[in-house]
Amino acid sequence: LKMSWFWFYLPVHLLMAACLCHSIKAPTTSSQQSFKTDLFNFYHSLMLADGKETTVHLLKDIPKRYYFVLEEGRALAPFTITVTPCDVPIEWSILVHKASASFLGKAARGDHDTQEVSKLQKAPSMVSTIFNYKGNSVETYMGMSSHSALYMLEFLSTERDTHITVYLTTDTTSGQLYPELPVDPRIDVIGIGHTTVTLTWKHSPSVLQHRENIQYCLLVNEKHNYKSLCAAETAIRSSGMKLPPTLALSLSPYLLEPQQVMILSNSELSIINKASSGEVRQICMGTKNTYTVLNLSPSTQYYFDVFIVNLLTNASAAYTGTFARTLEEPEPKVMELKDGKVIQVVLDGKKQKFYSLQYQARHKKIQFTFQLCRGQVRVHITKNGKTVALENISGMRYFLLKGKLLDTYLVQLRSTEESNSSVKVQVSPHFHKPLFPLLPESLKIKSFSKLRTCNSVTIAWLGTQEESKYCVYKKRIEEDRVWMELRSADRCSGPESRHKSEKVLCKYFYDINLQRAVTTETIKGLDVGTLYLFDVYLFGPSGIPVRYHSKVVKTRKKC
Description:
CATH architecture of the largest domain: Sandwich
Shape: elongated
Number of domains: 4
Distance between the termini: 96 Å
CATH superfamily of the largest domain: Immunoglobulins
């Protein structure tokens, strides 16, 4: 037996009639009659090569049909049909019409006579349904034909527009398009941690036969398992991630979208897609059948799917997916705060962990002081379990709180950036002499453009009603380093971290009238057309410095 494939294009009036009367359910007399009518039009279709995987696009509630012919040639003709839904469940069936090989051959060439057509139309129905399926699993039908026949595949999506892939072949001896799954295709979870899950699965027989052309790819997500790689890619695209076709299989980094991250290490390719619906990871690890997924979130349920992929054809087969929940993160250690003592906390931005501090009040009025050193920090203060303060801080921030003796305060700190942040914290009774100096209304440094010269600049800053010491420092910088200098500056570090050559001057001043508590300084001896970074440090009675916001000024090129 020899197999010929035809794409069938019905005339418009027949197609509309077919849309109205055909269904995937068991054939009725009308559907059989319609199929018999279609028989005499199939020679209008285009030939499709045997053994090719075809993508079929389905419109909601509109059936789509494809035909193939088995002609006489040998005693038995085996064939297989594999259908892979790429999204929603579909309905599909296989119908067969027995006919003579001579008529099928003539129909394919378009030279049948009207008497033969009329004779077949009047003949008793020879149409039967040999397979019916509804769902979203990958299904394979294996059949055997001992006579010439016309077969029709009919597909229907009742939920929404979708697409599927269909693979048909009569060559069952030279190997399958799809990699072979083991007898037990389950994925076993053999280890669970706070941020890790270790998986293992049985080797595919295809790996042992064609190791160089086969690899395993793992999909990790927080929504559900996928029954095919095709379905997984469709879901990722629909979430807005725009996953390029067979990206994890073809290993094409130049196709990455901005919201994708590719990590290549130790012969493993990881692609991380980020979207509002969660993170989706694709990891291709060659032929290893044990893998530990790292950097997961604690106390989170993840779904794991393994696909065995043929790198030559991009065809894949899916193992039975599994899921696991990572362990809860242990309670963070709580550090006790002591009256008047200043501590500096470094916060990990990548892990986004809370750092907890606890204080038991020995006075009714207390004051928390936070000095931001680097990055951005979110502060959450609770008193006996109830929130009393919650905000992102910048610079210096005071919280004056009232309560009862022995009230318990819990301070939780977290970096709001992916980079590390750091902050100094102090708690003290309200009447306690503060370690930090009294601060002006603003910590900004102002420069006067009209007073700039080729060799000098004039800056000004606010003071307070308390006599304090102010020290000015300058640093020459390149234009391409400005952002980095401002970003990486440690606002808690004092002049001890600066080179002696950077010191310009120190001065004392104050004014009882805050409207006049401002000072100016002209820094001379600068280079022409050069960028400088200026810093002012304020020292209080305790000697702990507070750094004003750095100011970048450029001297004039021409004077």
